[in-house]
Amino acid sequence: MQALDKNRANHTPLSPLSFLRRAAAVYPAHPAVIHGESPDGSYI
């Protein structure tokens, strides 16, 4: 199996903000969920 060279079609580096933007675009009907009763407001 040959590895593909990185290009826009098969590789997009994600920062925390770009990940959130992409997740919102790909899954618009799926709201974030707070895990348990975390006092620091951790989201999963």
Description:
With 44 residues, the chain is an all-alpha fold. The chain has one domain (12-44). It contains one helix and no strands. The longest helix is centred in the middle third of the chain and has 11 residues, at 16-26. The chain is elongated. The mean pLDDT is 77.
Overall mean pLDDT stands at: 77
Number of DSSP E strands = 0
Helix content: 25-40%
Separation of the first and last Cα atoms = 34 Å
Strand fraction: under 5%
Order of helices and strands: H
Coarse shape: elongated
Task: Sketch the major β-sheet.
Answer: none
Please give the oligomerization state of what you see. Answer: single chain
The DSSP helix count reads: 1
Number of domains: 1
| Rg, Å, rounded | 15 Å
Which blocks of ≥5 consecutive residues have pLDDT under 50? Answer: none
Question: Structural class, please?
Answer: mainly alpha
Helix/strand layout:
Blueprint: H1 16-26
Structure described in brief:
This protein is mainly α. It has one helix at 16-26.
Notable features of this structure?
elongated, single chain
